Amino acid sequence: MPPTTKLQKLFFLHGGRSHGPGDHELKAGSRLLAKHLNSQSKVKVNAFVHLGFPKDSSILDDADAIIIL
After folding, report:
1. Residue 69: strand, helix, or coil
2. Which of 18, 47, 51, 60 is the most exposed place for a label (fewest CB within 10 A)?
3. Which ranges in the chain belong to alpha helices (H)?
4. Could you report how far apart the first and last alpha carbons of the chain are, in Å?
5. Computed over its alpha carbons, how large is the radius of gyration of the chain?
6. Whole-prediction pTM
7. CA atoms within 13 A on the CB side of 30
8. 25-31 contacts: CB < 8 A, separation 24 or more?
9. pLDDT (tens digit, 0 to 9) for every residue of the chain, 69 residues total?
10. How far is Cα 65 from Cα 44, in angstroms, rounded to an integer?
């Protein structure tokens, strides 16, 4: 499959802390995944990380994918 030429917009929405340190690192995991997706070259990706659901949900209108952790 040839690489896509369209920039894919991904949002990682993560929740706040719900357990002790090291149990569920939602923020760190989201940031790590977004960083690696943005740095690879196979697929043009612009991944964003956001704490919780955005107050202005219009930022999600043109998202190609929304990942909720």
Report:
1. coil
2. 18
3. 26-39
4. 29
5. 13
6. 0.76
7. 21
8. 26/69, 27/51, 29/69, 30/67, 30/69
9. 455 577 899 999 987 766 666 666 788 889 999 999 999 988 899 999 999 899 999 999 999 999 998
10. 13
